[in-house]
Amino acid sequence: MVRETVTRYVVCKADELPPGERKIVEVNGRSIGVFNVNGAYYALRNLCPHKGAELCKGRLTGMLVGDSPQELCYERDGEILRCPWHGWEFDVATGKMVIQPGMRVKTYEVSVEDVSVDRFEVSVEGEAVILHL
After folding, report:
1. Residue range of the domain that includes 114
2. Is this structure's pTM higher than 0.85?
């Protein structure tokens, strides 16, 4: 059995990433967007699978759902990420494309942990958003 090593990266203090906000970080040559969606944290590769746009710079929105065009309602506000180039929409929590769930963007595990880190004259104390690769 091969066990994969997970590397953890402190993204920011938790209070620096309020609900509805995102932070784009560069980790091991990868651009990754970390999102706070209503108090839950998610991370997506900042690369649209369609044409390579910086996906995580897109608009956070919701979606219209209903059984008929006359019975639509707006749901999931702030949970859907729209690519800034061509409007492809992805679920921030799963990375799946809204209209074609077989198409997806890479997701990463994120946690909020109580940490105290001192490195190179930089200090982070209290709860921090941690990206796991």
Report:
1. 8-132
2. no
